[in-house]
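Field reference: "sequence" (input) and "structure" (output). Example, Transcription termination/antitermination protein NusG:
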Amino acid sequence: MSDQTNTPQVPETQEVVTSTPSHVIVNPNDDKRARWFVVHTYSGHENKVAQTLQQRAQTTGQTDKIFEMLVPTQEKIQIKRGKKQPVREKIFPGYMLVKMILTDETWLLVRTTSGVTGFVGNGSKPTPLASHEVQTIQKYMSQGAPSYKAGFSEGEAVKIVEGPFADFIGTVSGIDEGKGKVTVLVSIFGRETPVELDFLQVAKI
């Protein structure tokens, strides 16, 4: 197989769109033969791989076979320095989705892109995702209210900075990222008592 192809170069008038780093649209013109495939990448390089693959698809004239790259992410609220900050967290670190028509040329183009370690599939043949699996992932990415991202972990010592237990030192015993709540074991009257607090009421020591 060769990384080069005789496919004509993309006309300059063709629309090529890039939305966000986690969702790269190479060619908005869909093709019924295209399927979604899962590609394994080095963790932390997912967005860079998506951008690089977009550039390579354009350079080699394969935008009629490679359409989209998607790094599944979800919006969360991170508590940092006592403030709420929206962040997008990768749902599947080390993986990205590629919508493409699988040929020897597109397989090699994706496989030889810097940061890619391989396709996910049975044996050496990539296995396309079922349409309902892709829809589930996309729905999960776009669901309404963002959940909270905890900046600490169970068993960690923290300081309560707000409320009736302010300045108490305790140990995290439970985290509810969906509600933005944390349960802290605080020593009161010589015994450990669980206290439920908002993420904003707790700080790292």
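The chain has two domains: 23-142, 156-204.
The first strand starts at residue 17 and ends at 20.
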